[in-house]
């Protein structure tokens, strides 16, 4: 069984592309901290090249994911034709922690910690399904 599950930080913007067979995909890099039983190094992490081919997941990712978010990814490890490189074929994505962004009154997502170098992100309009503001969640079933 080939199962890959990791929690990490989205360190690149989503990039779209087309495979040689014509299938569309989204690509991003996921930075995952390593865990050891001994002393952990400060910058000890792995970076995984992730691809989303499923159209519904691609749409969801484009609507909700931004660079700097912590996410959980479930999928399969695949090797390239040369068997030297590998990538993750994403089957499932979830939010995994608080966002590094907070929304201000001008519909702009600013870094939650002003000391970070994260860029501001424009939040979609209220009619868009990709931005739910505080108090607008009355219709949600949870």
State the strand order across the main sheet: 1-3-4-6-5
Overall pLDDT metric: 75
- Please state the oligomeric state of the protein chains shown: single chain
Q: How are helices and strands ordered from N to C?
A: EEEEHEEEEE
CATH superfamily of the largest domain: Nucleic acid-binding proteins
Give the strand content.
35-45%
CATH topology of the largest domain: OB fold (Dihydrolipoamide Acetyltransferase, E2P)
Residues in helix, %: under 10%
Uncertain segments: 120-134
Shape verdict: globular
CATH classification, class level of the largest domain: Mainly Beta
Number of helices: 1
Helices and strands: which structural class?
Answer: mainly beta
The total number of structural domains is 2
Distance between the termini: 34 Å
- Based on DSSP secondary structure assignment, what is the total number of beta strands? 9
Biggest pleated-sheet summary: 5 strands, mixed, barrel
**Rg, alpha carbons:** 17 Å
Written overview of the protein:
With 142 residues, this protein is mostly beta strands. Helices cover 7% and strands 41% of the residues. It folds into two domains: 92 residues, OB fold (Dihydrolipoamide Acetyltransferase, E2P) (Beta Barrel); 43 residues, no CATH class. The chain has one helix and nine strands; from the N terminus they run E-E-E-E-H-E-E-E-E-E. A five-stranded mixed β-barrel has the order 1-3-4-6-5. A three-stranded antiparallel beta sheet has the order 7-8-9, with no helix packed on it. A hairpin with a 6-residue loop joins strand 5 and strand 6. The longest helix is centred in the middle third of the chain and has 10 residues. 11% of the residues are buried. About 11% of the residues have low confidence.
